[in-house]
C-alpha cells in the first residue's frame, strides 16, 4: 500500500509524538542508547565483532571502540580472541552485562509506564493500545 497524500504531515506528526517518548526512556537509564545497543547486540549473539557492532547499531568504528572500552572497564563485556584466527577479536556479554541490560531496560519501561499512567485517560490508553498493531507493521516494514 502506498502512503496517502491525504495525510502528508503524518510521518512528521508521528515522529513528533514518538520522539519524546524515547527521551523519557533514555533519561531514566544510566547508560547511553549506544551502549545499550551494544549490550542488546551482544545479548542476541554469542559473540560479535567491532565491525558487526558498528553496522548493527549504525555508529562509527571509533564510537564502538570508545564504548566497548568503557563497557569492558565496567565489567559488562569482555574481549576474546578467535580460537581459529587469533587476529580476530570477539566481544561477549558478561553475566554482569546481562544483569545491567535487564536493569536498564526495566528502568526505561518503568519511566514510560509512569508517564503513561500519570498522563492518560482510559480512553486514551485504549486508543494507543488499538494503534499498536499498526505501529508494529511499520517497525516490521523497516527491517
TrEMBL record:
GO molecular function: DNA binding; DNA-binding transcription factor activity
GO terms, biological process: response to stress
Top-level taxon: Bacteria
Presence of keyword GTP-binding: no
Keywords: DNA-binding, Transcription, Transcription regulation
Domain (HTH marR-type) ranges: 7-137
Protein name in the entry: MarR family transcriptional regulator
Amino acid at each position: 500500500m502506498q502512503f496517502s497524500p491525504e495525510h502528508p504531515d503524518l510521518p512528521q506528526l508521528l515522529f513528533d509524538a514518538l520522539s519524546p517518548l524515547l527521551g523519557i526512556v533514555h533519561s531514566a537509564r544510566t547508560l547511553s542508547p549506544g551502549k545499550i545497543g551494544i549490550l542488546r547486540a551482544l545479548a542476541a549473539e554469542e559473540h560479535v565483532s567491532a565491525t558487526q557492532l558498528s553496522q548493527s547499531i549504525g555508529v562509527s568504528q571509533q564510537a564502538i571502540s570508545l564504548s566497548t572500552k568503557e563497557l569492558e572497564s565496567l565489567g559488562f563485556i569482555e574481549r576474546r580472541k578467535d580460537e581459529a584466527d587469533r587476529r580476530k577479536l570477539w566481544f561477549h556479554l558478561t553475566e554482569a552485562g546481562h544483569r545491567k541490560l535487564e536493569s536498564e531496560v526495566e528502568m526505561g519501561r518503568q519511566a514510560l509506564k509512569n508517564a503513561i499512567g500519570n498522563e492518560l485517560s482510559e480512553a486514551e490508553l485504549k486508543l494507543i493500545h488499538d494503534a499498536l498493531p499498526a505501529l508494529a507493521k511499520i517497525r516490521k516494514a523497516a527491517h
